[in-house]
UniProtKB/TrEMBL annotation:
Domain of life: Bacteria
Pfam family, one: Aminotran_5
Organism, as annotated: Sulfuricella denitrificans (strain DSM 22764 / NBRC 105220 / skB26)
Record flagged with keyword Transferase: yes
Residue numbers bearing the N6-(pyridoxal phosphate)lysine modification: K198
Assigned protein family: Belongs to the class-V pyridoxal-phosphate-dependent aminotransferase family.
Transmembrane segments: none
Protein name (record): Serine--pyruvate transaminase
Keywords assigned: Aminotransferase, Pyridoxal phosphate, Pyruvate, Transferase
UniProt xrefs under InterPro entries: Aminotrans_V_dom, Aminotrans_V_PyrdxlP_BS, PyrdxlP-dep_Trfase, PyrdxlP-dep_Trfase_major, PyrdxlP-dep_Trfase_small, SP_NH2Trfase/AEP_transaminase
Amino acid sequence: MAIKSFHPPQRILMGPGPSDVSPRVLAAMARPTIGHLDPVFVTMMDEMKALLKYAFKTENELTMPVSAPGSAGMETCFVNLVEPGDKVIVCQNGVFGGRMKENVERCGGIAVMVQDDWGRAVDPQKLEDALKANPDARIVAFVHAETSTGALSDAKTLVEIAHQHNCLAIVDAVTSLGGSPLKVDEWMIDAIYSGTQKCLSCTPGLSPVSFSTRALEKIKSRKSPVQSWFMDLNLVMGYWGGAAKRAYHHTAPINSLYGLHEALVILQEEGLENSWARHQKNHLALRAGLEAMGLNFVVPVKDRLPQLNAISIPDGVDEVAVRNILLNDYQLEIGAGLGAMAGKVWRIGLMGHASNPRNILVCLAALDDALGRAKAPVKRGVAVDAAQKVLAG
């Protein structure tokens, strides 16, 4: 069988990720490959560290992209900070809090779970109570922006509580970086990880991370070796450190890093605060259209993540059939529910390059048609007008 070149269709990506990638990022990734120790490439690495510091709002020296997806960024935080026997308070309000628990246990730690309803923010009082009940805890871990539900938690308050009990704080910012206010230094976050495929609008495959001085002190004072050779920051920093001479650790994904560099340049050009404001305004426009149709959000307004909108599926509607209409007839991808929300919600992403008025109006018009065909109990022909009124401001 003669297999030919692969040519993917042009989709509009409005699911939970990946998001649409800027043409500038794709063009950057097509530039000539050079060596990962080339002096020119090392200069670009230093620029990327500065751009990531800007995106995270931090001066942490240990700020860099892990050469693997967001899940590896998560693992990098846990394998470096959690030692066998360490007690870790893990706040779970969706799928990804559960993955934190798995990481703790695979590191030999003891996970103490603080459970909140899916679709709700993490409750600071529950964290406070758990820390009082477990005075020997060493780390608190929580998801800032829970991708499985669209809930946004108060990271600043949760980190403050962790520090009051002499714990480090590990934060999942995979869906919030670049899209929602996130201030690593001001909020005194100790370890944080994200992904490139959400609000940064780069391709999947890299995970920005940042570690505070407090976190580095814990890593350096470990009693046992980091269980992962590839993710051991003591080794990785020989390559990503600030010294002129870089030690070989692994062959970096060179062209993917070109893409991330360009994505971060785009973010800098727009301005971080302007990006936050754009995501919020576009969320309000999409919300107006969805609510005009009669669709309901899962997450209360005060807990709602602007770039990931979880919508309850109307009674009697075949949710897979609706998504298939959107994909096949409109080249539009939205997400299904995960875990406890599987079959109950759609997840509509408005992230990065995909967070724009055109996508909002296309999505609402396509949903109007698909739900009409599904004979769903919604109001037809009103969603686009409602969104346009918000966009017109």
